[in-house]
């Protein structure tokens, strides 16, 4: 008899996504309200818009529960007591389970639920007099590099790329774990009065921006302030900055709030002039990674996806900005469409607190912490504050430990000297870390943080297998960052639950594979090649000098179709869908995280905190009990990274010619599951379209992908 799943639904005031709750358990939440320790300036002249806690991050959860091999996979349920249960309507539907179709599933039709807000970080509980004495003692005996003057302002400068892998001492890069950890420590540190956030042009995606924004919002709930200064900004930077108490910018700061644009580039015309003929086979009508070389214009399915992504991005930005600034959406939209270029207009519209030089902002910061203008404002730099240990602030976590593994970059089976350090996921290394979690009794669960557009199919499948084995013993929760598509989503499917940011680029269940024919180019330059072979398909791997024969093209199609069916079937089983249901939402389509939740490919909207909360829930750890989060991904020190990168570049200079002459890769060892982000220019920027050299992009694709990808 097929398993029947009872789905409860709840109502609230937010959206219309049903929820699949787990076994209910009494939980308690940690209050984020705390009396400010330092004087706060509440005068209206410095506060234009930006109401406190004006934006709520709803906990949208997928409509699908799933049972895979006896393992029930459901999203976290911590619905508040005020939630009203509604009548359950039962409908019979087939469900894919272990490759077979079960007869029935109970589904529900009712209104939306909401989960309780999950704080971006935990606050240290006030243990009374002796606990405070112990904290002061720890601060007194802290080593010099951890000492901070009372009433200090933490200075954080966000600019350029932001990595999802925690760096070490020599690393010059900004990393999301360190940024979020500094917010959490500053919220609990009695020596920190507030945060001064400086923002320049950001090169990260919207998933990381949402994570940082959530920390800003929750930091303000502690009673401490966040003041932001924008050196240059577009939609993404402003979206982050408007979460602050006060927002400033200099008169001549370059900015542009003009809306969003996406573009897709096509090189077929260039390739024809060069004497190259792309031959691609795809399964999934939305799988468009090969279109940049195979087409001269955009295809209708590709245009459909771009329009949907653009609409989602535009609507979400408008809603959040209008809510944060206290404006109506039509007012913000009108301002954007006016093409404003004068900074004073932002102040007049209430979208900026004031237009000031930075020294004038420093004077206002002094007033906020109760200092006179002639006194020195105590500030602590982001990198120095990163050296303050959690133990010093009494943030020891608990006895229970949740492991975190970070899978960021292109997925490969093994590490290669040709890969830049920190830019990739080595399956062998990740599998080793997964086995540590599986074999150790101290880890109660795993959060897999994914920021990957895919890579090698074999590497992705090996990681998927190890995660599936772990998920039968301990809870595994996938947390999606900027992107988790193709191979990135493939490994996420093995988790008990998948959590995504609203604007994460996710899924892409599709396969593309192909080759380039250089016959015309070789003819033009006077190059000839003679191949002696024995076997019908013997020249399949060495056919770069000519176009594929009909039987070779058929073989290529069969291989591609075979890989697509494997990907699709595993996705269907993981998401408890029939093959027909999965086919409707697969086909290589890219979704924003919120849309992926709606179609059942992802479970919940949220960041790392929600993923950890779900892992605690599934491990039967009460939500009010703190846990120790252990990072298992250990990057090389920054010094090692720089030395290795230099060696890689030098080695690459001598290896280019060999890479160019390498034969196209096909079959098992050449198949890759990745999304080519050059087909979605503008998705990684604020509202701007990325600029790049198309010739360089083509050559990079040839050298890096070996002329064959899916």
Automatic annotation (TrEMBL):
Keywords: Hydrolase, Protease, Serine protease. Pfam families: Peptidase_S49. Residues 219-371, 470-621 form the Peptidase S49 domain. One of its GO terms (molecular function) is serine-type peptidase activity. The keyword Protease applies. The keyword Cytoplasm does not apply. It comes from the Eukaryota. One of its GO terms (biological process) is proteolysis. Belongs to the peptidase S49 family. This is Peptidase S49 domain-containing protein. It comes from Linum tenue. The lineage of its organism: Eukaryota, Viridiplantae, Streptophyta, Embryophyta, Tracheophyta.
